[in-house]
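Practice problem 4.
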């Protein structure tokens, strides 16, 4: 068969495709445990940042020393016991949200964060006693302009109102525009703001331009990224409300013993 025949060209091309597919699949299988480990480590690192630790050397050790993970039933605000069969170390809220038993659809009128479905249960992180300023760290996610944004908001455990940290650790917003959610200056504008107004309702508002000096609930906007900023505001209001951590925070205010 001539080297330039159609049959031989197709055969060689198919052979190369098969070999490459096998190599890619094999690499994916062998590298997956490493990817899972690194993803979990990065999440712990971001939780520590929310707890006030900017540069952790031994992430696993420091996480175990500083952070207590609890699984919370969002509807009741109660901690889920071990008899529920949920392991705080391995529970995956994203997977649970898609599960018929563990997930639930969010009523459209209440879905201001554009989330659609949520897990009935949520991991919540508490800094342990004796580790300095106590914080409660709340995972949050919702729609930006181009992607679902995932982050952590930390509240002062003393008043369950003062914001001590807020940052996203995963998103796909446009660099230089919506990607400004990674800007350190913007993150700082959230610090010491009050998450709830005087009536106890979520009160955060991301304004256009800079927030008025001395404002309690207003946060700086994102120049050129109005829709992303609006998405951030809505997802925060959602998770602080009755469909999110509202029942948990209300229980803690009434004297719950978490943390």
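Answer key:
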């Amino acid at each position: 068969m001539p080297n330039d025949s159609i049959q031989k060209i197709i055969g060689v091309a198919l052979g190369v495709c098969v070999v490459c597919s096998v190599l890619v699949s094999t690499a994916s299988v062998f590298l997956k445990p490493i990817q899972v480990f690194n993803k979990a480590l990065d999440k712990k690192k971001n939780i520590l940042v929310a707890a006030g630790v900017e540069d952790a050397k031994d992430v696993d050790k420091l996480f175990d020393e500083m952070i207590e993970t609890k699984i919370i039933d969002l509807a009741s605000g109660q901690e889920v016991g071990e008899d529920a069969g949920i392991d705080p170390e391995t529970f995956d809220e994203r997977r649970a949200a898609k599960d018929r038993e563990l997930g639930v659809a969010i009523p459209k009128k209440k879905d201001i964060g554009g989330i659609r479905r949520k897990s009935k249960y949520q991991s919540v992180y508490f800094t342990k006693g004796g580790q300095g300023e106590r914080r409660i760290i709340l995972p949050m996610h919702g729609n930006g302009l181009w992607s679902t944004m995932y982050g952590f908001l930390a509240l002062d455990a003393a008043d369950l109102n003062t914001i001590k940290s807020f940052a996203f650790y995963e998103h796909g917003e446009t660099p230089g525009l919506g990607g400004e959610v990674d800007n350190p200056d913007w993150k700082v504008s959230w610090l010491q703001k009050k998450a709830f107004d005087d009536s106890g309702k979520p009160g955060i508002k991301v304004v256009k331009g800079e927030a008025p000096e001395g404002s309690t609930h207003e946060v700086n906007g994102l120049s050129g990224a109005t829709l992303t900023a609006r998405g951030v505001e809505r997802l925060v209001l959602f998770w602080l409300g009755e469909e999110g951590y509202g029942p948990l925070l209300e229980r803690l205010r009434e004297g719950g013993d978490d943390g």
